[in-house]
Backbone:
């Protein structure tokens, strides 16, 4: 069997690759709802929830928070259709641009920031 050289430029139009699905460019920060195991959402409205359907497996929930003053981040969880329970509450005494990460074993999670919100983004993926 002869060695076939690999292309040096992956975008070379002369390369004919079969059986490979195209990659779809998806901006998760601008997407709300489930995307092949990933769920994400965003808001810039203080007090508005981002609710994520996490599924049945343990999930890593990542939250990006950007505020222009003091604020409280609230993370709540529940079993499907159950009662929302506070999972974590983070008090920021000044403006922040930070991230929080949680390993969650519940079916649903929701996050919100009570005031001074510039942007709140949440993304989750099963582990």
Residues:
């Amino acid at each position: 069997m002869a060695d076939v050289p690999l292309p040096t430029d992956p975008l070379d139009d002369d390369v004919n690759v079969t059986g490979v699905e195209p990659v779809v460019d998806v901006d998760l920060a601008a997407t709300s709802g489930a995307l092949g195991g990933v769920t994400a959402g965003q808001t810039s409205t203080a007090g508005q929830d981002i609710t994520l359907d996490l599924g049945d497996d343990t999930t890593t929930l990542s939250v990006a928070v950007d505020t222009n003053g003091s604020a409280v981040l609230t993370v709540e969880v529940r079993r499907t259709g159950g009662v929302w329970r506070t999972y974590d509450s983070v008090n920021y005494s000044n403006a922040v641009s930070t991230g929080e990460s949680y390993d969650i074993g519940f079916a649903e999670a929701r996050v919100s920031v009570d005031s001074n919100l510039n942007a709140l983004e949440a993304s989750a993926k099963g582990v």
